Amino acid sequence: MPYPPLGASTAPRDCDLLLTGGHVLTPDPEDTGRTVTYEDGAVAVDAGRIVAVGSAATLRRAFRARRDIDCTGRAVLPGFTDAHTHLFQSLARGLGDGMAIWPWLRTFMWPYAIAVTPQDARVAVRLGAAEAARAGITTVVDHHYAPTDTETVLAVADAIEETGLRGAVARGMLGDRTAVAESRGLPTALYRYSTAEELRITAECLASRPAGSRVQVWPAPLNLSYGDPDLVHGAVEQARGAGVRWHTHCSEGAKDPESYLDAYGIRPVAWLEKEGLLDTRATLAHAVWLDEEEIAAVGARRASVAHNPVSNASLASGSMPLAALRAAGATVALGTDGPCAGGRQDMFEVMKQMLFTQRLATLDPASVRCEDALTAATLGGARSTGAAPGAGLVARGAPADLAIVDVSGTARHAPLNRLGAHLVHTAQSSDVVMTIVAGEVVFEDGRCTRIDEEELYAHAREHAAALTRRADITDHTFQGVSPC
């Protein structure tokens, strides 16, 4: 039964958790880029939802909690949404450094992905999900493409949920081999299924993990530039029929729209718009190399973009036209893009890099503010996934997905002058002391509460050693490889 507003009753009400004494920060629900902070604030949680937000003194009188959590010296903020990641990459962290996107894919990531077994994928995804939970990430969109049989995709979803997170497994699909794929030299081993088979497998996964699941499955054409256009049509139809989102890499590299234009006489996002496929269910990951017409179309259709500034900088892919996309009406979310394209599942690093790359690209330090980054990492990410109303906020009625960050423990946290700027410029994932998903504490006191991390790390080391040998990739593999 919904809680009445505070003041409607003088008798204390029971709740599951009461977080008191912290700096409670929430984005403006109107997505203005502003944030609201409650000093000496409090949050009451019951049955997986936030039931009250206000001053600590008021909520201590109004609630009797099954567990009180002292948040003095800590920031309480919405859990982050990692809107684009590849958790299976966690076993190859640190390899493939120093190359641009295409040689990185050709000589490192695709050989690695082809060599991943279902057993490797389960361990890698569990490892990546644990890292996310430790970093205050409560929702992940895992663009998974290694391997993608029904059993493995569902096992990947299970691994994410077992860690306690929400999210989606965006099942990466290629379908029939295209002329673009042939001309750009994609390995034939990537093309494991025909277009019809890809859609059939995705339908099976959707049936097992439908809309409303804690971890859903989404149709996810792997890349607009070299995937089968018929597959994209089928994927969008599946998403609309199943009531879920759909996800794809889009114009990450400078040659992506060029190769599509050469093959089809139109740019990829312009093609989506012409075919009636661009919609509010779409999340376009990267969206770096868009022209003005494409930017306008993304905004007009209220599609989402997953901005990945750390990986874009690491691979020298370019800088997304953030201001233009926001002005056009697109929903902007943030992604880590996986452990191989930046090193960490760390949304603090991603937020900071969002500021720095945009300021460098525009030569305007006022082009993006810390609060813009916080909003993209929380509210923008939640909206890009089609999450429940209130998700991405610390507000009454919102899902109780929260990150609690120590902002007092070390010299770099003093003084605390402006919380939003402090969280983006100074904080990092190791400052997260608690992660709460649906009212459940899934990370606390340096450990994930649902899994045996030491056992997981041992399995990860074993699988990583065998996998990198099998894929014939080591830290020496890329010596002498042209970076561009």
Automatic annotation (TrEMBL):
It holds the Pfam family Amidohydro_1. It comes from the Bacteria. Residues 41-63 form the Aminodeoxyfutalosine deaminase/Imidazolonepropionase-like composite domain. Residues 76-442 form the Amidohydrolase-related domain. InterPro entries: Amidohydro-rel, Metal-dep_hydrolase_composite, Metal_Hydrolase, MQNX/HUTI_composite_N, MTA/SAH_deaminase. Keywords: Hydrolase, Metal-binding, Zinc. The keyword Iron does not apply. One of its GO terms (molecular function) is hydrolase activity, acting on carbon-nitrogen (but not peptide) bonds. PANTHER family: AMIDOHYDROLASE-RELATED DOMAIN-CONTAINING PROTEIN, AMINOHYDROLASE SSNA-RELATED. This is Amidohydrolase. It comes from Streptomyces nitrosporeus.
